[in-house]
Amino acid sequence: MSTLITEANFGAPGEHYLRSFTPGDDFYEALLDAHRDLSDAQSELLNARLILLLANHIGDLGVLREALHIAREEV
Amino acid sequence: MLSTYVYPHFDYLTPAELHGGARRRHPVIVVGAGPVGLATAIDLAQQGMPVLLLDDDASVSVGSRGVCYAKRTLEVLDRLGVGDRCFAKGVSWNVGRTFFREHEVYNFQLLSQPDHKRPGMINLQQYYLEEFLVRRAQELPGIDLRWQNRVVGVQQEGQDGEGGVTLQVETPDGVYALACDWLIVADGARSSIRRMLKLEVEGKVFMDRFLIADVVMKADFPAERWFWFDPPFHPGQSVLLHRQADNVWRIDFQLGWQADPDEEQKPEKVMPRIKAMLGEDREFELEWVSVYTFQCRRMSSFRQQRVLFVGDAAHQVSPFGARGANSGIQDADNLVWKLKLVIDGQAPDSLLDSYGEEREFAADENLLNSTRSSDFISPKSKTSLSFRNAVLTLARKYPFARALVNSGRLSVPAFLCGSSLNTHDGEAFNGQMWPGAAMDDAPIREQGRDGWLLDAVGEHFMLLCSVDDPAAVNASTMAVFSALAAAPVPVEAVLLASGGGAAGAGLRVFEDCRGRYAERYDARPGTVYLLRPDQHIAARWRRLDAAAVAAALTRAIGKH
Questions:
Q1: If you average pLDDT over residues B481-504, what whole number do you get?
Q2: What 3-state class would DSSP assign to B15?
Q3: Whether the predicted pLDDT of B62 surpasses 90
Q4: Mind telling me which InterPro entries this protein's record contains (chain A) (predicted)?
Q5: pLDDT tens across B382-402, in order?
Q6: Which phi and psi (to 5°) does residue A42 adopt?
Q7: CATH classification number, B443-556, choose in 1.20.140.10, 3.30.70.420, 3.40.30.120, 3.40.605.10
Q8: How confident is the model at residue B499 (pLDDT cuts 50, 70, 90)?
Q9: Do B409 and A40 count as a contact with CB atoms less than 8 A apart?
């Protein structure tokens, strides 16, 4: 059974990164770009859709429950 | 007025041209005696090139400007003869801490390993750097430094600029004309020469305002970079604290775009902000206050025929990451050896296109990283603020989120791996010393004296050859070294050996006394590195091959 990965894990297969922060920064920029020019309501909908897509990709309910638990910890 | 620093006044002298002196054409004129223009002029003069340096002022820059000078900059400053003075006056640091509300969420170490001559960063007020560079420039016979000489006209002459550049220069005694083969423009972010030549600089103003308060105080905070997101003493915004020389502390408060810059600079507005941060009991004096905005933009091409743009005149970034002055110094480092070879007729004019190619690439990396930092520090929507705060709440416990915390990706040299001057690896190497990389430092010993690799290389092409026993270098290898030394663009061969030892025929030997060279360069006996005059790797091999070295050198001087 797999567990939730909380170590840095961004990257692309076969891609070599000169600085360790680069793949994470690449993702973060893509995330903000996806929201560009959207209203708050539209952004909320985008986020919800994104979570559902990623959750289905992960699939493993144990991993998803762990992520849900951590996400709620400091809210 | 500052209490800790007295501005030097540099004397204006009537230019010879204005009292009947002969007009001659100058090989190189540099405009702007800020850190980048001074570095350029010093580098040229050190390489034996006479240089005329013009500045419209008569002192160093006023007030608080650049603060953080990175390891690579210090290495270049070492080569220019001012590294020790900057290091001694500056505050060295390697650790940065990031706080969110009341808690530290993340810290970083700029140098992960010991055995480098210079620290990851020093903090030093820009006027000190400029003063040290001016003193150095005054020591060098090749530099004619003219204060209160303002360029008011500029024109490229002839077809494709082949006729050089003519300038109109205004002085207290009137206007006079100058002519040069090459013009280096280092007149800053609001470059008047760029404007006079009608050249565009593309990018955007960042919609946020920041308050700089430099305060003098005695405090025993460690010499570290401290960055707060949403701290209790300045809610909803960020704050940055840096220690500088003379017990001056730089505090940088994010204000938001709506803030009124005139209002925010008033002491009655500034003092409560600082007291909220430092506590009511802390004694301090205000040294400097200003409110700034910034732009992220660059010229599309740093080379315009015979006019070459360096530093802020060519590119501007946000201050987060200290990528402004640091990248400008690297522009100078990249440009000067190329210009010298072209002027001396030893390299084609196209070598100067590689200045643009390499430094535009570096500028894009600096713009990308500093823009990303700005977007993280200054979220522009409710959603980006939510993501930012989510990252910060996760960062304390979960390593992946720490890597996403972006309070500035601090200046490091770009890996120029795509440069047309590089020769690609034919064999496998570990580590990061790819062709195009700025060299890593390492402790070495030469003739029994401890020193540093980066103090021992540069200003000309060199070949570092790792050997087992320096005394055992055979005659055919010696013949290759002699031929390289006698070539039109000479290459100095040096041996590297883990145990040191002596070599024949006056060959220098660097002892890799702590094994760091072997480790950082993945070097073993037989390994050969070809180094550029700016301490970048041009090519490397697992064994010496005279024809391969010759081909790589040809490529590295733009002949291909």
A1: 93
A2: coil
A3: no
A4: DUF2783
A5: 999 999 999 999 999 999 999
A6: -65, -40
A7: 3.40.30.120
A8: confident
A9: no
Burial class (CB in 10 A: 0-12, 13-18, 19+), B493: buried
Partner-chain contact A35 B384, CB within 8 Å: yes
B26, amino acid identity: H
The first and second tokens of residue B150, run together, are: 């303002």
Burial zone of B426 (CB within 10 Å; 0-12 exposed, 13-18 middle, 19+ buried): exposed
The CA distance from B403 to the nearest CA of chain A, in Å, is 6
Name which of B24, B96, B9 is nearest B55 in CA terms. Answer: B9
Chain-chain contact of A19 with B382 (C-beta, under 8 angstroms): no
CA distance B308 to B325: 17
Token pair recorded at residue B475: 């005659």
Nearest Cα residue in chain A from B414: A18
The domain locations on chain B are: 16-90+123-201+298-350, 443-556
Query: What domain range includes position A43?
Result: 38-75
Q: How far apart are CA B385 and CA B339, in angstroms?
A: 47
Interface predicted TM-score (ipTM): 0.97
Report yes or no on whether pTM surpasses 0.90.
Answer: yes
* Residues 38-67 (A) with a CB less than 8 A from some CB of B: 38, 40, 43-44, 47
What are the residues facing B228 on neighbouring strands?
B99, B239
Query: What's the whole-number average pLDDT of chain B?
Result: 95
- What is the per-residue pLDDT across B421-445, written as a single tens digit (0 to 9) for each? 999 999 999 999 999 999 999 999 9
Residue with tokens 């994470």, as numbered in its chain: A24
**B340 burial type by CB count under 10 A (0-12 exposed, 13-18 middle, 19+ buried):** buried
**Is B250:B37 a contact under the CB 8 Å cutoff?**
no
In a domain, residue A14? The reply is: no
